[in-house]
Amino acid sequence: AARVLATLRSHWKKTTFGVCLLSWGGNWLYGKHCDNLLRRAACQEAQAFGNQLIPSSMPLKKATVFLNPAACKGKARNLFEKNAAPILHLSGLDVTVVKTDYEGQAKKLLELMENTDLIIIAGGDGTVQEVLQDLCPGSLRIAVFSKIPIGFIPLGKTCTLSHTLYPESTNQVQHIINATLAIVKGETVPLDVLQIKGEKEQPVYAVTGLRWGSYRDAGVKVSKYWYLGPLKTKAAHFFSTFKEWPQKHQAALMYLGPTERPPEEPEGKPSRPPLYVRLYRRLRSYWSSPPKEIPQEVTPEDWEELKLSAIELSIATRNRQLDLTRTEDFMDICIEADTVSKGQFVNRGSQKMRDPHMCPEGSQCIHASRCILQLPEGTEGSFGIDNEEYEAMPVEVKLLPRKLRFFCDPRMREQMLHAAVQ
């Protein structure tokens, strides 16, 4: 033993390296073991759903999974097959996987839509938006799409919706398992959608919102400073201040106020009356004298208009702060003053990376159901719509309230209802 200790002491550099390597390897193996235990427990829970008896006349529920293999730096496919796919199959779902690895899949997706009971989007924010654009090219299509529940399995770098739908977790495997089990359990919540229409005929749909300004532009460049480690976010915003200061984004904004929320529509279809009742009603309406038409006055829409000069403008849904009992429908328009100092800009940039649509103190916040954003001629730059980049242009943004139903962890739904009661 003394000889071993002497040898280790004389080769202390190698000893230190070996101890660090063994510690890292042991920690890695323990993490893998814990992940396997999580998978096993989740599969057992899903198996309980799969073992439930169903009538022979009732077909299996069909689930269409839109998987983006390129998400999470190409690891999404492996993450899905290892953590989510076994749970879905054990739960008794008839699963079809569609890889969204090329553009122009709208026709194929629309054909699948006719034969599916639920949709599962496996990827990040970009995958969510890609599927929305393919499946919602018009108001008629989104009306059909809104009747099908949607599941979201967070596999991408940015997964904004997961903050609303699932509990926070630092373990990626646990997070994916929570999302998949939420789909199996079947609890849903309604989410708003923004329809953003520019000069092009095809509108863009968003579940989070639109950003235009200096914080968004600096946030896009953070990855360029990867070599600075934890300082990369502050560096991106610091170097952004070298441009002309203060950075002003000028536009004209017209908007309509919130709208009253209509009552929830019953899920079940009303029973059809008997044939003789329908015939009687039709004959009565045919022989009765036509009612006199009373001209109704059309109430003009009360548009508000303002000129703005801001360091950033954001138009966001209320999905992040979901309130299931609110009586009005609106989106949040946040106009951040362009009077911030360079130091405030750098510090606030880090907060914006964590919560892009936060509205800082001193900003103007407007609740609107519809707005028109007019940009000066020759305006350059880009919008960020659900973390995807689009050319900045005049746009009309319309709120489509409670348009989509997403599967949600029952614990999160319970928290929403509890917070609303308080």
From TrEMBL:
One of the GO BP terms on file: sphingosine biosynthetic process
Cellular component per GO, a single term: mitochondrial intermembrane space
EC number assigned by the record: 2.7.1.107, 2.7.1.138, 2.7.1.94
Keyword terms of this UniProt record: ATP-binding, Kinase, Lipid metabolism, Membrane, Mitochondrion, Mitochondrion inner membrane, Nucleotide-binding, Transferase
Cross-referenced CDD domains: GATase1
One Pfam entry name: AGK_C
Pathway where it operates: Lipid metabolism; glycerolipid metabolism
Gene Ontology MF annotations: acylglycerol kinase activity; ATP binding; ATP-dependent diacylglycerol kinase activity; ceramide kinase activity
Principal location class: mitochondrion
The reaction(s) this protein catalyses: 1-(5Z,8Z,11Z,14Z-eicosatetraenoyl)-sn-glycerol + ATP = 1-(5Z,8Z,11Z,14Z-eicosatetraenoyl)-sn-glycero-3-phosphate + ADP + H(+); a 1-acyl-sn-glycerol + ATP = a 1-acyl-sn-glycero-3-phosphate + ADP + H(+); 2-(5Z,8Z,11Z,14Z-eicosatetraenoyl)-glycerol + ATP = 2-(5Z,8Z,11Z,14Z-eicosatetraenoyl)-sn-glycero-3-phosphate + ADP + H(+); a 2-acylglycerol + ATP = a 2-acyl-sn-glycerol 3-phosphate + ADP + H(+)
Domain DAGKc: 58-200
Membrane topology per record: Peripheral membrane protein
Subcellular compartments: Mitochondrion inner membrane; Mitochondrion intermembrane space
InterPro entries reported for this sequence: AGK_C (IPR045579), ATP-NAD_kinase_N (IPR017438), Diacylglycerol_kinase_cat_dom (IPR001206), Lipid_Phosphate_FormReg (IPR050187), NAD/diacylglycerol_kinase_sf (IPR016064)
Listed cofactors: Mg(2+)
Family named by the database record: Belongs to the AGK family.
Protein name according to UniProt: Acylglycerol kinase, mitochondrial
Taxonomic lineage of the native organism: Eukaryota, Metazoa, Chordata, Craniata, Vertebrata
